[in-house]
Design goal:
The protein is 42% helix and 24% strand. The chain has a six-stranded antiparallel barrel with strand order 1-8-11-10-9-12. Strands 5-4-2-7 form a four-stranded antiparallel sheet. The chain folds into three domains: 109 residues, Efflux pump adaptor protein, beta barrel domain (Elongation Factor Tu (Ef-tu), domain 3), CATH 2.40.30.170; 55 residues, RNA polymerase II/Efflux pump adaptor protein, barrel-sandwich hybrid domain (OB fold (Dihydrolipoamide Acetyltransferase, E2P), Beta Barrel), CATH 2.40.50; 114 residues, Orthogonal Bundle (Helix Hairpins). The protein is built from five helices and twelve strands. The longest helix has 57 residues. The two termini are 88 Å apart. InterPro entries: MFP.
Length: 347
C-alpha cells in the first residue's frame, strides 16, 4: 500500500534559499527620513545659520485725502494707471467748502462796507479839522481882546461869558475832530488788516478746493482702491493712494542669527515663481510686528527689526507681493547648496 503523500524526514530537510530584496525601498526611506530631519533642523535652528526672512514689495506712498467732507462727482483714473504731476484724478463736491466760501465772502463784504464808511468819516474829519483849528485860534484871540476890555471895564459880564462859551466850543470841536481822526486811522488800519486776512483766507480756501478738482501731487501709479461716484468721505479719510519712486523690499529680519547682516550684503529674493538678487540698502533702527500673512500659527507673534533691500530688477515683482529673502553662508555657497535644495536661483 503506497502513501498518499511522501513525508520528509526531519533529519533530512532541504536548505531554503532566502530571497534577496532590493535596496530601492530602503534608500527611499532613508532619503525621506533625511529630508524630514533636515526640515525639522531647518525649522528649529535654520535662522542661526541661514538668512531666512519674509518681506513685502513696497514703494513710497502718497495718500490723497481732504480736510473737509467731500462727495465724489467723477473719477478720471483706473487701478494701476500711471499718472504725472498735475494730472486730474477726481472731481469732488463739498457743501461745507461752498458754505465757508459764502460766509467768508459775506464777512469780506461787511468789512469793505465798514471800511468805506470809515474812509468817508475820515475824509470829512480831514476837511473839517483846518476850519475847526482856525475857529479855535480866532476864539483865543477874541478872548484875549475880551480880557483887555474886561480889565478896562468896557465889556459886560454877559458878553464876556458868551465869548468864553464860544471859545470853549471851538476848542472842543477841534479836540473832537483830532480824536476822531486818530481813532479812524487806527480803525481803518485794523479794517485793512482784516480785509487782507479775509482775502488771504478766501484765496487759500479756493486754492485748496480748486473747484473740486483733485490733481496728482507726484508722478507714479494709482493704487488698487479707486473711489466710486457718489462716495462721501470724511475729513482725513483716505480716498486713494499713489505709489511713486523705485520699488524696494521691506524685510522683517530674524531675531536670532550667527552671522552679520550689514548694508551692501547681497541676498536672494523669490516669490515662489520668480527670483532675483538684491542688496541690503538700509537697516532701520525700528521694529514692527509681523503682518498676519507672515505669522506662524505655532509661534507667538513677535516684533522684528526692519530693513530695506534694493532690487536689481525693479519690474520682477508686483507691488505688495509677499517674498522670501535668503542668504547662504560662504561655505554653503561654495558647495552650491542653494541649487541642491532648490531654495533660490544662482545667477
Amino acid at each position: 500500500m503506497r502513501p498518499l503523500k511522501q513525508r520528509l524526514r526531519p533529519d533530512n530537510l532541504p536548505n531554503e534559499q532566502r530571497v534577496m530584496r532590493g535596496k530601492t525601498g530602503r534608500t527611499i526611506y532613508l532619503l525621506l527620513l533625511f529630508v524630514f530631519g533636515l526640515a525639522v533642523v531647518n525649522y528649529l535652528f535654520g535662522d542661526y545659520i541661514l538668512l531666512q526672512a519674509d518681506g513685502l514689495v513696497l514703494r513710497d506712498q502718497n495718500v490723497i485725502a481732504t480736510p473737509y467732507v467731500a462727495r465724489v462727482e467723477s473719477v478720471d483714473i483706473t487701478e494701476g494707471q500711471a499718472v504725472k504731476v498735475g494730472d486730474a484724478l477726481l472731481k469732488l463736491q463739498s457743501t461745507e467748502i461752498l458754505e465757508r466760501l459764502a460766509d467768508l465772502s459775506t464777512k469780506r463784504a461787511d468789512l469793505m462796507a465798514k471800511a468805506t464808511d470809515f474812509k468817508i468819516r475820515a475824509e470829512s474829519v480831514t476837511q473839517l479839522l483846518p476850519l475847526a483849528e482856525r475857529r479855535a485860534d480866532e476864539a483865543v484871540n477874541t478872548i484875549k481882546q475880551f480880557d483887555d476890555l474886561a480889565a478896562a471895564r468896557l465889556v459886560t459880564s454877559a458878553r464876556y461869558q458868551e465869548a468864553l462859551k464860544v471859545s470853549y466850543e471851538a476848542n472842543r470841536d477841534r479836540v473832537n475832530l483830532k480824536t476822531q481822526r486818530n481813532v479812524l486811522q487806527e480803525e481803518l488800519k485794523s479794517l485793512d488788516d482784516a480785509l487782507e486776512d479775509a482775502h488771504d483766507a478766501i484765496s487759500k480756501v479756493e486754492a485748496l478746493y480748486a473747484e473740486g478738482t483733485v490733481l496728482s501731487p507726484v508722478s507714479g501709479s494709482i493704487g488698487a482702491s479707486i473711489p466710486s461716484v457718489g462716495n462721501v468721505y470724511r475729513p482725513g479719510e483716505p480716498i486713494l493712494s499713489i505709489y511713486y519712486g523705485e520699488p524696494y523690499i521691506l524685510v522683517y529680519l530674524p531675531r536670532r542669527y550667527l552671522f552679520p547682516i550689514s548694508v551692501g550684503m547681497t541676498v536672494s529674493i523669490t516669490d515662489g515663481r520668480d527670483s532675483t538678487e538684491g542688496v541690503v540698502d538700509e537697516i532701520l533702527p525700528v521694529t514692527d510686528t509681523l503682518p498676519k500673512e507672515f505669522q506662524n500659527t505655532f509661534k507667538p507673534s513677535d516684533r522684528s527689526q526692519l530693513a530695506k533691500i534694493k532690487i536689481d530688477d525693479s519690474g520682477e515683482f508686483p507691488l505688495n507681493q509677499k517674498v522670501s529673502v535668503s542668504r547662504f553662508p560662504p561655505v554653503l555657497e561654495m558647495l552650491n547648496v542653494r541649487s541642491l535644495l532648490g531654495l533660490g536661483s544662482d545667477d
